[in-house]
Amino acid sequence: MVDSGAATMVPLPLHLTQKLLSSMTGNKNGKNEDEKTFNRYVRQLVDQYLDKEVVISKQPEDKVELIVQACREKFPEFAHWTTTRIRIYIESCRRLKKIKNS
Fold first, then answer.
1. Does the CA dihedral 15-22-80-66 come out positive or negative?
2. What does the pLDDT look like over 12-52, one tens digit per residue?
Protein backbone atom coordinates (compact mmCIF):
# COMPACT_ATOMS: atom_id res chain seq x y z
CA MET A 1 0.00 0.00 0.00
CA VAL A 2 1.18 3.44 -0.87
CA ASP A 3 0.53 6.26 1.58
CA SER A 4 -0.25 9.48 -0.24
CA GLY A 5 0.75 11.50 2.79
CA ALA A 6 -2.58 13.33 2.88
CA ALA A 7 -4.38 13.20 6.18
CA THR A 8 -7.99 12.20 6.09
CA MET A 9 -10.37 14.45 7.99
CA VAL A 10 -12.67 12.81 10.50
CA PRO A 11 -15.74 14.90 11.36
CA LEU A 12 -16.08 15.92 15.00
CA PRO A 13 -19.17 14.91 16.94
CA LEU A 14 -21.77 17.68 17.13
CA HIS A 15 -21.22 18.51 20.81
CA LEU A 16 -17.47 18.94 20.25
CA THR A 17 -18.08 21.08 17.17
CA GLN A 18 -20.39 23.36 19.17
CA LYS A 19 -17.84 23.65 21.99
CA LEU A 20 -15.11 24.47 19.50
CA LEU A 21 -17.19 27.13 17.76
CA SER A 22 -18.29 28.68 21.04
CA SER A 23 -14.70 28.83 22.28
CA MET A 24 -13.67 30.55 19.06
CA THR A 25 -16.42 33.18 19.39
CA GLY A 26 -15.93 33.68 23.13
CA ASN A 27 -19.44 32.44 23.85
CA LYS A 28 -19.29 30.23 26.95
CA ASN A 29 -22.54 28.30 26.65
CA GLY A 30 -22.65 27.92 22.87
CA LYS A 31 -25.73 30.07 22.38
CA ASN A 32 -25.75 32.70 19.70
CA GLU A 33 -27.32 36.12 20.15
CA ASP A 34 -30.53 35.12 18.34
CA GLU A 35 -31.09 32.26 20.75
CA LYS A 36 -30.43 34.49 23.75
CA THR A 37 -32.87 37.06 22.41
CA PHE A 38 -35.45 34.34 21.81
CA ASN A 39 -35.07 33.04 25.37
CA ARG A 40 -35.46 36.57 26.79
CA TYR A 41 -38.55 37.12 24.63
CA VAL A 42 -40.16 33.88 25.85
CA ARG A 43 -39.42 34.78 29.48
CA GLN A 44 -40.99 38.23 29.03
CA LEU A 45 -44.15 36.75 27.50
CA VAL A 46 -44.43 34.09 30.20
CA ASP A 47 -44.00 36.75 32.90
CA GLN A 48 -46.71 38.82 31.26
CA TYR A 49 -49.33 36.18 30.41
CA LEU A 50 -48.87 33.05 32.53
CA ASP A 51 -48.84 32.10 36.20
CA LYS A 52 -45.33 30.84 36.90
CA GLU A 53 -46.51 28.79 39.88
CA VAL A 54 -48.68 26.53 37.69
CA VAL A 55 -47.31 23.81 35.39
CA ILE A 56 -47.70 24.39 31.66
CA SER A 57 -50.31 21.63 31.29
CA LYS A 58 -52.61 23.51 33.71
CA GLN A 59 -52.15 26.91 32.03
CA PRO A 60 -54.95 28.34 29.83
CA GLU A 61 -54.40 26.92 26.35
CA ASP A 62 -55.31 30.19 24.64
CA LYS A 63 -52.57 32.07 26.49
CA VAL A 64 -49.95 29.40 25.78
CA GLU A 65 -50.99 29.39 22.10
CA LEU A 66 -50.73 33.21 22.05
CA ILE A 67 -47.11 32.99 23.23
CA VAL A 68 -46.32 30.21 20.74
CA GLN A 69 -47.79 32.22 17.85
CA ALA A 70 -45.93 35.39 18.87
CA CYS A 71 -42.65 33.48 19.05
CA ARG A 72 -43.33 31.71 15.74
CA GLU A 73 -43.83 35.08 14.03
CA LYS A 74 -40.82 36.78 15.55
CA PHE A 75 -38.43 33.78 15.65
CA PRO A 76 -39.46 31.24 12.99
CA GLU A 77 -36.13 29.39 13.31
CA PHE A 78 -36.99 28.51 16.94
CA ALA A 79 -40.69 27.67 16.40
CA HIS A 80 -40.17 24.01 17.32
CA TRP A 81 -38.51 25.01 20.61
CA THR A 82 -41.09 27.46 21.98
CA THR A 83 -43.29 25.15 24.07
CA THR A 84 -40.25 23.43 25.53
CA ARG A 85 -38.70 26.79 26.39
CA ILE A 86 -41.92 27.88 28.15
CA ARG A 87 -42.00 24.64 30.15
CA ILE A 88 -38.33 24.90 31.13
CA TYR A 89 -38.75 28.51 32.29
CA ILE A 90 -41.84 27.71 34.38
CA GLU A 91 -40.07 24.71 35.94
CA SER A 92 -37.09 26.90 36.76
CA CYS A 93 -39.31 29.55 38.39
CA ARG A 94 -41.10 26.92 40.47
CA ARG A 95 -37.80 25.33 41.53
CA LEU A 96 -36.34 28.69 42.58
CA LYS A 97 -39.47 29.49 44.60
CA LYS A 98 -39.20 26.16 46.45
CA ILE A 99 -35.55 26.87 47.24
CA LYS A 100 -36.37 30.35 48.56
CA ASN A 101 -39.21 29.05 50.72
CA SER A 102 -37.27 26.23 52.30
1. positive
2. 565 555 555 555 555 556 578 999 999 999 999 999 999 99
